[in-house]
Amino acid sequence: MTADPHVTEAAGKHRPGGDGSAVASETRSGYEVDAGIQALWREFTESPDQLVRDRLVLHYAPLVKYVAGRVGTGLPTHVDVGDLIQSGIFGLVDAIEKFEPARGLRFETYAMQRIRGAILDDLRSQDWVPRAVRSKAREAERALERLGARLNRTPTDAELAAELEISVDDLREFYGQMQLTSVIALEDLVAAGKDSGSLVDTLPDDGAVDPVAVLVDQDNRRQLAQAIAQLTERDRIVVGLYYFESLTLAEIGKVLGVTESRVSQLHTRAVMRLRAKLVEQA
Predict the structure, then answer these.
(1) Its pTM surpasses 0.90
(2) Most buried of the four, 29, 67, 103, 109, by CB within 10 Å?
(3) What's the distance, CA 18 to chain centroid?
(4) Rounded CA separation 10/33 (Å)
(5) Is domain 25-126 in CATH 1.25.40.10, yes or no?
(6) Residue 208 forms beta bridges with which residues?
(7) Which residues contact 22 (CB under 8 A, 6 or more apart)?
(8) What are the C-alpha distances in Å from 52 to residues 40, 45, 102?
(9) What is the pLDDT, as a whole number, of residue 223?
């Protein structure tokens, strides 16, 4: 199992330059590390032991730092990245204990979703969003639902502002405040209005495919794709770059030629509209 290239870079493990012998030596070292990790996984799978688990945690710890950094982008300054990392460690431990190597999945991909989920769960449990902001967010979501049903399309900012009886400038400032409520994994949006769990918890076993799970997954993806397709072009770009290309808000701002603050507003608006549309479909 090889480490995620982005995580490796984030952890500062850049490949050094040099002559052929240096590269060959590094390659051998990489093979040795990979073989050692596979041996640890075999040992842990056959006989779960806390010492072996802790060695796996140490090896994959850079994943936590990477995910915490991504989640922390755009959060209020009072949210300590160190706290996010601490929450992420619990997610990593949970991922190690529940991972099944026999399924043939990459641990890094599985673990990053578990880590992200643990961080988001901890943020939600702290309820660090002001009550007034949550109330406004619910009001805006209900307005989106009403307008969507009335217009049979995604409403514009001007239409939403009129429905809320505020100006467009106030609405955009409102998006900045509601950014605090948009800490959500994209897969969580799929479950909007449903009593289903995380998609991570329903990953199919390649050796025993559940037809019902496959149909549910396909239906979830279809609904999400339909909801995304109804967004404005700029909102679709923001969702695609943030969730599927893993760009930060600052990086998306450079692509679109706007400020990071404006991208944050666009992201919040897109999440609200997706949630409203998926609730409507459900």
Answers:
(1) no
(2) 67
(3) 37
(4) 19
(5) no
(6) 205
(7) 16
(8) 7, 10, 18
(9) 77
Tokens of 16: 């050094």
Q: Is 206 helix (H, G, I), strand (E, B) or coil?
A: coil
* Structure tokens, 173: 């400032």
Distance, in Å, from the CA atom of 260 to the CA atom of 69, rounded to the nearest integer, reads: 16
Q: CA distances (Å), 90 to each of 83, 119, 183, 235, 259, in order? A: 11, 9, 19, 33, 34
Q: How many residues does the chain have?
A: 282
At 94, which amino acid appears? D
Cα first-last separation, the chain: 39
Identify the pLDDT of residue 182: 54
Splitting the chain (282 residues) into consecutive groups of 10 residues, what average pLDDT does each group show? 44 45 47 73 86 90 89 70 88 90 82 88 68 75 86 86 89 72 51 49 51 60 80 87 82 88 85 80 64
Instruction: State residue 22's pLDDT score.
Output: 46
Q: Where are the domains of the chain?
A: 25-126, 131-196+210-280
What pLDDT is stored for residue 49 in this prediction? 83
**What are φ and ψ of residue 154, in 5° steps?**
-75, 125
